[in-house]
Amino acid sequence: MSSSLEMQQIDVIIPTYNGADCILDTLKTVFAQVLPDGWSMQVYMVDDASTDETQALVRSTYPQAKIVELSPNQGRSIARNRGVAAGEGGLLCFLDSDCQYQSTQVLAAYIQVLNAGADASFGPLDTDFPGFWGQYQRAVYAQRIAQAQQGNMQVMTSNNFVLRRSVFERVQGFYTGYTHYGFEDYDLLQRLLSAGCDIRFCANASANHKNNDTLGALCHKLKVSAQYSAPLFMQKHPQVYAAMSFAKVDARLHPALRYLSWLGTPLLSVLTTIGERAVHWPLPYSFKKLYVQGVMALSYLRGSTQLSS
């Protein structure tokens, strides 16, 4: 357990890539935060080689935000580490560019938790996205919250969390070997736990996730994650990976699944297209949920059969 915080500055690090459609809404909720007396905040937006107007929008609307530019695109691990290196606050807060704080007291709640002795803390996610995907995401988030409230810190993700700079430096930050989507936050979590860090759930630090991914986009992320990021995580944390749901559809652990991938891959594009439409049809939620989960599992399986070189 760490002592109370001595450095009274919090650095908010927001990595983004082509985030023009959401970054201003996110920054609005960050700059609306009411900090405890004696605390200051510096915001770092790390632009990971965006090709849209993200930087221009931020410069014109929130000139007080510091922009860290990366080129070429280097991935979320390097982006977050560069944001940390740009600042000097004793407390580091990470927020995804499509997540908006749901109250003006989120950072104050985090500060209170860490002042009580925690090394790191994470808050719940919610979404107001309509339709099937909103219902699906809310169910996922509710399950994570329930597990966190029961003391399961394995559900922590990097969308919305905070930790001490000293702790971040002790575990050497995000591992930069993760250059593609996925697992960099799980990897950091395992190293924090291995270092004996006190991680706590902060129910009052909620963020609204404005994720408008389609089934096709989600399937692509899962395929890339399985192909490039999962092998690295599996090598570093084999027992943890084996206990994750991803492992159930990983052909590297279950070679017989390669036959399923061989049979299903030619149909994957068609199944995805059907799924994109089916989520808007007047079908039972349970049926649509089962269908999209099957398509996403097949996408992950497909990625696990491909070489990551």
Q: Short description, anyone?
A:
The protein is about 45% helix and about 15% strand. With about 300 residues, the chain is α/β, with parallel strands linked by helices.
Q: What tags apply to this protein structure?
A:
309 residues, Spore Coat Polysaccharide Biosynthesis Protein SpsA, Chain A, 2 domains, 7-stranded mixed beta sheet, 3-stranded mixed beta sheet, 11 helices, globular
What does this structure look like?
The chain contains 11 helices and 10 strands. The protein is of the alpha/beta class. The chain has a 7-stranded mixed sheet with strand order 3-2-1-4-8-6-9, with helices on both faces. Strands 5-10-7 form a 3-stranded mixed sheet. Helix 8 crosses helix 11 and helix 10 crosses helix 11. The protein has 2 domains: 9-209, Spore Coat Polysaccharide Biosynthesis Protein SpsA, Chain A, CATH 3.90.550.10; 215-304, no CATH class.
